[in-house]
Amino acid sequence: MFEYxxxxxxxxxxxxxxLNKLKLEQIxxxxxxxxxxxxxxNGKIISDCFSNDFTKLLAxxxxxxxxxxxxxxxxxxxxxxxxxxxNIILTGSECSFPIHRDTPNKLLSGVIYLYPKxxxxxxxxxxxxxxxxxxxxxxxxxxxxxxxxEKNSFHSYKxxxxxxxxxxxxxxxxxxxxxxCEVDDVSFLKVKLRxxxxxxxxxxxxxxx
Length: 209
Prior knowledge:
This protein is α+β, with helices and mostly antiparallel strands. The protein has one domain (about 5-185): Jelly Rolls (Sandwich), CATH 2.60.120.620. About 25% of the residues lie in helices and about 30% in strands. The model has no long low-confidence stretch (mean pLDDT about 95).
């Protein structure tokens, strides 16, 4: 199993409560809705469901902690960091997202479980076939972090069949995919082609290459 970190009570109570009170669109039990909130290291902010001030507050308050985690898990990638994602993902109660590795722009991948009190967490696997599943149990304000590469970080998530699932996805990211591939010692061309075709493959077969 790949290396990961679990941190309980990751967010301050005020920030956790703010996120749980966001007014979001209603979705069906089989849908996933993603709200993208992004801040670049040069100060540029793109926000779907946060104010720019709140996006900046999250970065100012938590990025130092996230960088320490990245330093522990994959120190060679720290210099590649260019921007931060704070995405809100609302998953329908009967929706599931298949086994996948994260896209290579993500240097550090994180998720903080928000709402409800009980749901399904994240399932980690030793490979893309789904061997050796390990479940990170759902607990409100629990954070899971890992640094993906081509050979590890396979995971999936789903609703529990009862309630919709709200989570904050917290990623440290880069645009320099070629350099990421050098660090991971994999073919840039292979990764580039796979990432180009993966969205179509997912729509057709509900799985990833």
